[in-house]
Design goal:
The chain contains 5 helices and 5 strands. The chain has helices at about 5-15, 20-25, 30-45, 60-85, 100-120, and strands at about 50-55, 55-60, 95-100, 120-130, 145. It has a 3-stranded parallel beta sheet with strand order 4-3-5, with helices on one face. Helix 1 packs across helix 2 (about 20-25). The chain is elongated and about 65 Å long. The chain starts with a helix and ends in a 6-residue tail after the last strand.
Length: about 150
């Protein structure tokens, strides 16, 4: 048996959101398309995954079990994709930040700390300037500017 990750995601979403309509909205599909994919998953597994009651469906014990495993499988697939991302996919380089002194502690320092944690290959050159002279910052090209003024 080969399990389709896309169908597993639909099943996991059904377990989470409770209705085919909610799964369809989340997936950008029609409820009919979601029902068809879930029925295909049921045929592929040769296991009753749902109990139908009119227009509603409820997961069977096997459906609950497979939905839990689906979450684990999808998390592992997401982790593998993330691990395989190459260095070229990660931001790197230098950002020049210009900020007025009173914005440093409230805005710039926390933002630089988060950037450093998330993207260690990005370095930040900091420049402090007088907010009254924001349009006359001399020196290197400024990548990011924190200023009390809106850009012209």
């Amino acid at each position: 048996m080969i399990l389709n990750p896309w169908r597993l995601r639909l099943l996991a979403d059904l377990a989470t959101y409770g209705t085919v309509r909610a799964v369809a909205q989340r997936a950008g599909l029609s409820p009919s398309a979601v029902s068809q994919q879930l029925a295909t998953l049921e045929r592929e597994t040769r296991t009753a995954l749902f109990e139908r009651a009119g227009r509603r469906v409820r997961l069977t014990a096997a459906g609950v079990l497979l939905a839990g495993r689906a979450r684990e499988i999808l998390a592992l697939m997401d982790a593998a994709s993330e691990e395989l991302r190459g260095p070229a996919d990660e931001p790197a380089g230098t950002v020049t930040l210009a900020a007025f002194q009173s914005a440093v502690h409230a805005l710039a320092s926390p933002a630089v700390a988060r950037l450093s944690e998330r993207h260690p290959d990005v370095t930040v050159d900091r420049m402090w300037h007088n907010p009254n002279r924001v349009h006359s910052v001399e020196g290197p090209v400024v990548t990011v500017s924190v200023s009390p003024f809106q850009p012209a």
